[in-house]
Design brief:
This protein is an all-alpha fold. It has 13 helices and no strands. The protein has 2 domains: about 160 residues, no CATH class; about 190 residues, I/LWEQ domain. It is globular and about 60 Å long.
Length: about 400
C-alpha cells in the first residue's frame, strides 16, 4: 500500500507516539480490573479477573506484534491506533459489569481490538510469502476465537463464562501455533513496548496507593501517621519492583533477543518472553495493586486473608515472570528471586494478625535484602562478567 513503509528485517525502530497513546487508554481498563478484585476478593472474583485480563492482554499483544512488523509512523497506521484507542474506552467502562449489563459491549470492543491489528497486517505486511502465510494462518485462528468471544457476550450465566474460557484457550493455542511461523520481529521495539506497558501497570499501583488517601481527605479526615507510613512503604515497594525489572533484566532480554539471527528463533523468543511471561508480570502488578489499595484503606487493621494472598500472588508472580524470562533467554536461574518467593510465602502465612502497614514494612525489608544480595552476587562478587551477558 502506498506510503506504508515496511522496514527491513534488520531495521529496528522506537515506538510511535500513537502506540504510546493507545497504551494510555489501557490505564482505564486496568483500573476497572483492580476495582473488580477489590470488590470481589474471592476465588470466583480472582478467576473472573484472570479471564478478563487474558482477553485484554491478547488484544494489546496483537497490536504490539503488528506494530512491530509495520512501521507505525504512517498516517494510515496511526489512524488505526487512534480508532483502537477510542474503542478501548467503552471496553474499559464495560468492565464495571462484564458478566452482566456490560457483557455485550465488552465482547464487541475487545473483539474489534483483537481483529484490527491482524487485518492491518494482512493488508500492509511485506510481500514475503512466508510472513504473509504466517499472518493469514494466525488471522484465521484469531477470527475463530473472536466468534467465541462474541457468542459469550450475548448469553448469560455459566454458558457465557464457558464460551470466554474456550475463547481464551483457543487464542492462547493460536499463539503457540504461530511460534512456528515466520514473522518480522524487531527486538528493540518489543523491549520498549513491553517496558512501557509495565510502566502503565505500575502507574495503576500508584493510583491505587493515592486514591484512598484522597478519599479520606475529601471526607474531612486527615493524614494520620500510619497512612503516611503506608503510602511511603508502598512507594518503596513499587520502586524496588521497578528497579528489579528495568535496571538489569529488560536491557539483558533485549540484548539476547538481538543476538538471535533466525526469524523463527526471534519470533519464539518474543512469544515466550514477552507475550507469555509478561502476561504474568503485568497481571501480577494489578493483583498487587488491589492488595495495596486495601492496605491504604485500612492501614491500622489486620490485612484480610484474601488481600494478604493477593499481595503474595502479585509480588511473587512479578518476580517469577522475570525469572522465567531470564531462564528462557540465558538458562540462568535467578536464585535470589526464588528465595524471595519462598520467604514471602512464609511471611504472609505468619502475619495474619498483623496490621496491614506492618505486613507491608516486612515485605519491603525482605525485598530490599534480596535485591542487595543479588546485587552483590552479580556486580560485586562477579565483576569480571559483563552485566549484559550475566543478568540477575
Amino acid at each position: 500500500m502506498k506510503n506504508v513503509p515496511i522496514p527491513s528485517r534488520e531495521e529496528d525502530f522506537t515506538a510511535d507516539p500513537a502506540e504510546l497513546f493507545f497504551d494510555l487508554s489501557f490505564v482505564f481498563a486496568f483500573s476497572r480490573l483492580v476495582f473488580h478484585l477489590v470488590h470481589h476478593p474471592t476465588l470466583e472474583g480472582f478467576g473472573e479477573f484472570v479471564l478478563l485480563f487474558t482477553l485484554i492482554w491478547m488484544a494489546w499483544s496483537n497490536f504490539t506484534w503488528s506494530a512491530n512488523a509495520v512501521a507505525g509512523n504512517s498516517r494510515f497506521v496511526r489512524a488505526i491506533f487512534l480508532l483502537a484507542t477510542a474503542i478501548s474506552l467503552p471496553m474499559g467502562a464495560s468492565l464495571e459489569a462484564p458478566f452482566g449489563e456490560g457483557s455485550i459491549v465488552f465482547a464487541v470492543t475487545v473483539s474489534a481490538i483483537l481483529a484490527m491489528p491482524i487485518l492491518m497486517g494482512a493488508t500492509l505486511l511485506t510481500d514475503d510469502k512466508d510472513v504473509q502465510s504466517s499472518n493469514t494462518r494466525y488471522l484465521l485462528f484469531t477470527l475463530a476465537g473472536i466468534v467465541l468471544v462474541l457468542a459469550g457476550g450475548f448469553i448469560d450465566g455459566a454458558w457465557q463464562t464457558g464460551f470466554w474460557i474456550a475463547a481464551v484457550a483457543w487464542l492462547v493455542f493460536s499463539t503457540f501455533d504461530a511460534g512456528g511461523g515466520d514473522w518480522l520481529v524487531r527486538p528493540g521495539h518489543f523491549a520498549e513496548r513491553h517496558g512501557l506497558i509495565v510502566i502503565i501497570a505500575l502507574g495503576e499501583v500508584i493510583v491505587a496507593i493515592g486514591a484512598p488517601a484522597v478519599e479520606t481527605l475529601s471526607e474531612g479526615g486527615g493524614f494520620d501517621g500510619k497512612l503516611v507510613a503506608a503510602m511511603a512503604a508502598s512507594g518503596l515497594l513499587v520502586g524496588m519492583l521497578w528497579w528489579s525489572y528495568f535496571d538489569r533484566p529488560l536491557p539483558a532480554l533485549e540484548h539476547r533477543h538481538g543476538q538471535l539471527t533466525e526469524a523463527n528463533e526471534r519470533s519464539r523468543f518474543a512469544r515466550d518472553v514477552y507475550t507469555y511471561n509478561h502476561f504474568f508480570i503485568v497481571g501480577s502488578i494489578l493483583v498487587m495493586a488491589a492488595a495495596l489499595e486495601e492496605i491504604m484503606l485500612h492501614p491500622s487493621d489486620p490485612l484480610p486473608d484474601a488481600f494478604r494472598w493477593m499481595l503474595f500472588i502479585g509480588i511473587s508472580g512479578y518476580l517469577l515472570g522475570v525469572v522465567m524470562s531470564i531462564v528462557r533467554a540465558y538458562t540462568n536461574l535467578a536464585v535470589e528471586r526464588l528465595v524471595a518467593v519462598a520467604a514471602l510465602a512464609v511471611l504472609i502465612a505468619l502475619t495474619a494478625s498483623l496490621d496491614g502497614i506492618w505486613v507491608l514494612i516486612a515485605v519491603d525489608a525482605l525485598l530490599l535484602a534480596i535485591l542487595a544480595i543479588e546485587h552483590y552476587r552479580v556486580e560485586v562478587a562477579n565483576r569480571l562478567v559483563p552485566v549484559s551477558a550475566k543478568p540477575s
